[in-house]
Amino acid sequence: MDLDTARQELEEFIPHVKNISDSSIKKMAGRDLMRFKEFKKQGMAVKFGRFTQKENKQIQKNVEEFLALTGLDSAEKLLFTSRYPEDKDTIHRLKTEHHFCEKISEGIPRPWRLIYYRARKMFDPNNYKGRYTTEEKEQLKKYQALHGNDWKKISELMSRSNLSVAMKFSELKSAINYGHWTKEETQKLMSAVEDVMRRKVRTENPSSLSSLDQSDRDLWIDREQLYQPLPWTEIETKVGSRYWRQCKQKWNSILTRKLTRGQQLCKGTNGLRTKITLIKRLYETKAEDASEVNWDELRSAVGDVPRAYVQSKFYRLKVSFVPCWKRKTFSEIIDYLYENTLPELEEKL
């Protein structure tokens, strides 16, 4: 099937198909289109968003049946094959012979990719491993000396996520200060961000700056650029005394204060309203994972703030109100906040 035909046929089942890349369309035409048509015959619509408890049980059943069929002894081997280099060829052969894609998605009217990601989340034994031990920290330093910043390789060696090992190493390698930010540190951060912004403006629109010397002009950028990702490891190096995540949090706090003209969004009555709005909007998204949430859309619901502010508010909500949140899925956390925390906050308001 050619690409245009595949896209047209998929549009019946996926309204946002125009936003999907060509390579993904090709994969979906092979893995999903026939499934979608079969579900249509059964009167079942293709679903997105939060997985139901019934769907989770179906995924568990599909995985267990595939393990029984192939003789593989763990879901981790099946779903995280790269962690088992010695068995990799055998596992790939078994997946191909026994039609892994079809089996894992049986009975679930969703794109195969989403089912696969959900299964990986459900069966990953490395989820929520907690704090790094002293031995793990030393291990991480050794692996980074051997493999540089190849975080994928290091994450496999340490059975931690890519982001986790990268962030932890950034923390370890810096002479970290955990106290209040001094005026000197804050000024270094502001200067570092300004340097990055100037370079960005120069690169994206050099003609607008050609008539003036950089050192003699104010920096004019549009608001949307303030919300874009910045090279935090570079900024960390310029600041010197803080690791990149601290720099990012501090900058977002400065940005929030400036954009809201000092309004106390997180305190008193305003703070309660912000929490209530955030919980309601997150619940309405029906997202199964944080990656499915449109944080920019939520940002506009809360106020004129950076998206990182909204993400940090959600983090504080789950840490403060959700017991054993590390052992809960994203949707379970949202359900708990909506069913238990929201009524308390509304009563308090």
UniProtKB/TrEMBL annotation:
Give residue ranges for domain Myb-like.
124-172, 173-255
Question: Which GO BP annotation is one of this protein's?
Answer: termination of RNA polymerase I transcription
- Offer a single GO CC term for the protein: nucleolus
Q: Upper taxonomic classification of the species?
A: Eukaryota, Metazoa, Chordata, Craniata, Vertebrata
**What is the protein name for this chain?**
TTF1 factor
Instruction: Check the record and name the InterPro entries matching this protein.
Output: Homeodomain-like_sf (IPR009057), SANT/Myb (IPR001005), TTF1-like (IPR053078)
Q: Which PANTHER family match?
A: TRANSCRIPTION TERMINATION FACTOR 1
Gene Ontology molecular function, alphabetical? chromatin binding
List, alphabetically, the Pfam families matched. Answer: Myb_DNA-bind_6
Q: Which residues cross the membrane?
A: none
Q: Please name the PROSITE patterns in this protein's record.
A: MYB_LIKE
- What is the native source organism of this protein? Prunella fulvescens
Gene symbol? Ttf1
